[in-house]
């Protein structure tokens, strides 16, 4: 029996032993309160850092979104009004090399303590790989690339081969680095080495809502074309191309791919910061609540109030204790030798002297002060 959690006494052979859990000592409680306070200060600091990073990331994400959406709309309108024009980034390469498959890019964070951010993205990635046999690595022809240490660890643990891990972005992805990655995807796609590029990331909608989704980067399918409203009757836009439409699309489509990938990275970064901000705020405020604090620093169950007459109650004595009481009455000379009986059994001396009634059953979690028992 652990002496730190319970108190037990040696009793004669064949007798019943009683043990009550003890509450933590004052020093232990103060040490625990200090530790909780130190953790709260750390999480508060992390919350403030995430808040400042979130403000900068949100400004960057909201600033690039109008440009990306306008570029999508322009490319969609030009492709619709320029006639039958084809481009490899839209229709795909003319010929595919043997073993060409899809590329799935999973964007996660390098650090944890971000709430459900990484779990939601990785869950969406696993659903995408299970539902698309052509995207599965190993059994299929697909390959998986990862951004972030958390995603790399998760995929290795689940026996998913990772073709490449990108570590050059961090918390502040630049357009040059993202553009070089997008250019490599476009070169491989036009050469027929890959058939498609899908990105699994967190889409930032607002500070209170972020949604994990799969974005198809290549072949290029502008989102504006899916949800674009039909033009009103009697109105039709007429474009004059200078230079020619094919040459113009050849310049706009690569920029559209780069802008789309950059917007995905910005949404992922701002979603990570807002998730960490909310998680650290919850970790800071929750331990300071009285109910939670009482559950943390106490080790004994809560005491129920009882009437004063039975507030220090103990269980009824066993048969051997009653026998010892009769021996004490018949042989006063050995009363001193049997004075350990009250402390042993935790019954008040009044019961053994016959001046008080038998105590009731103990209250759950109650303790008895040993100094209250005097030698009989």
Short description:
By secondary structure, the chain is an alpha/beta fold. It contains eleven helices and seven strands.
* Residue windows where pLDDT falls under 50 for at least 5 positions: 5-9, 223-229, 291-300, 341-347, 359-376
Could you tell me the mean pLDDT?
A: 76
Overall, the morphology is elongated
Binned, the helix content reads 40-55%
Into which percentage range does the β-strand content fall? Answer: 5-15%
Oligomer: single chain
Counting DSSP E segments of at least 2 residues, the number of strands comes to 7
What attributes characterize this protein structure?
7 strands, 5-stranded mixed β-sheet, disordered C terminus, two-stranded antiparallel ribbon, single chain, alpha/beta, 11 helices, 376 residues
Structure description:
The chain has 376 residues and is α/β, with parallel strands linked by helices. Helices cover 47% and strands 11% of the residues. It has 11 helices and 7 strands. It has helices at 26-81, 88-91, 117-131, 149-157, 175-190, 223-227, 245-285, 290-297, 319-330, 341-345, 349-353, and strands spanning 6-7, 20-21, 101-107, 143-147, 164-166, 194-206, 209-218. The strands form 2 sheets. It has a 5-stranded mixed β-sheet with strand order 5-4-3-6-7, sandwiched between helices. The chain has a two-stranded antiparallel sheet with strand order 1-2. It is elongated, with a radius of gyration of 36 Å. The two termini are 29 Å apart.
